[in-house]
Amino acid sequence: MSESIYSQIGGQEAVERVVDDFYDRVLSDDRLVDYFEATEMTELRTHQVQFVSAVAGGPVEYTGGEMRDAHAHLDIDEEHFDLVAAYLERALRENGVSERNVGAIMSEVAALKDPVLGR
């Protein structure tokens, strides 16, 4: 059996570092911060750790809402989705995740674009 991406990148501690870095970037961007104004960030960070862990093959089950429903009230446009995805990709790379594993994780994120955008 091959080692999961989750294990290769360093498990929960590494995923938590990536998620913290990711939200630091997102919340520092004036184009995005309003989306998170009324959001309980501790809960959101927990869901994001679960999500990244699950798509990386970790021993975690994602318990967040269905993507279309969870984002419907935000009226997210393509530009903002792409910005958020770029910040996640940068956080993965800058926290030592290999290009191959970044690609695998980001392909899972790309698959969520239409549901997040309500399409």
UniProtKB/TrEMBL annotation:
The keyword Metal-binding applies. Keywords: Heme, Iron, Metal-binding, Transport. GO terms for molecular function: metal ion binding. Pfam families: Bac_globin. Belongs to the truncated hemoglobin family. Group I subfamily. This is Group 1 truncated hemoglobin. It comes from Halobium salinum.
